[in-house]
Structure formats: C-alpha cells, structure tokens
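Is it possible to get an amino acid sequence alongside its tokenized fold?
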Amino acid sequence: MSLRDLSFWAGSARADKLLIRLRRECGDLTAFDRLYQQMPDPWSTTVPRFRYQLLKYQKILAALPERRFHRGLDIGCGLGVMTRMLAAHADQVLGIDLSPTAVASASQLSNGAHGVRFRQAELLQIEPLAEPAFDLITMVDTIYYLPGLTDTVLKSMGEKLVEMLTPDGILLLANHYYFRFDGLSRQTKRIHDFFGSQLGLRSVTERRHAFYLVSVFARNPPQT
C-alpha cells in the first residue's frame, strides 16, 4: 500500500457512512442501488492509481487450490473487478449483486471479457437464480452487510450456498480483519468460524493479512 492509498481509505469511509444513512432512510434493498447512483464507484475498485484493491484481490485468489474451475459465482460483485479476475481461474463466471445499477455498470465494464456475465440478485433470496451448480463460489467483503447476522441467518444463507456447490466445490470467504479485539474483526472471525463448523464444510486454508481474513472451504463428500 502506498501513501496515495490513504485517500482510498478516506473515500471508502465516506461510502460506508453514506450507506449507513441510506439504509436508515430507504431500507436495505434500496440503499445499495442509491449508493451506486450517487457514487458510481463507492469503494474505488476501478481507480487505477489505487493499488490496494488489486493487490488484495490477487492475494485472495492466490489462496484458491491450484485447479481449473468450470463454473464460478462471485457474490456481491459490485463493478465486477474480481469477477473478471476470476475468469483466469474458471471457464464461466457469474457475478451477482443487489444493486441493478452496479450490475449494469459491471456488464458495461466487462464488454469483451470471455465467459463473464452478471445478474441482479439478493443474497438472502438466492434460490431463484435457477443456475446449475457451481464448483467455485466467492464472497468478498459482502456478508457483513447483511442485516441481523444471527446464527439463524448465517445458517440459512450458508446452507443455500452449500446446496449450490458441486460435491467437489470450493467456497472462498474474505472479509475485513484488523485486530482480534475490535468489533469488526470479531464479527469476521465469528462468521468464518461458523462456516467452518456448522455447515458441513471443511477448512482448506485460512490466511490472515494486514486488513482482511481469507478462508477457503471445501464441501465434505456425502456420507456413504
């Protein structure tokens, strides 16, 4: 991270502050679309001068097993930066996001990207995707935006994701992680630990970086 990335952090903080206000004013379903309408790139994922996000995505993807995937699903794709990077690992990649504005922008930015497409979808209502199973699902900086992250919500959402995985499928989670004693880091660790203990998944690897935690899980084979 360079000194110029300090302005990236300041911009991200402004986006998070605006999102909090929008969620309070118009509810969770509308807030993210309003955010992308007011700030076309809220977290500066497509700004070339900021190296942090690109390096972060590279390190996250480096945690994947060394294999070629057939179908990938990127949940909370935003403007599709990581979705497009996933195309180097999978033959087909679908990016989904709650915001129709973000999905439209991601589609436009991905013109010419082979095997990449986007759809609008809500994470907690993901069943209507009506898609074949995926052998790779990624969810980066997304899950903690869900309202009311009780164990019941995590279990319901996690079970849907597991059902969408092929028997040899891989699930990758990455979320902000600063220090073990701050609230956001404790929430991230709780989420990742829950996925590793309550959903019939086994841990493949866990990598802690300066500002985020990456966990890779594999679906356990069915009992015979």
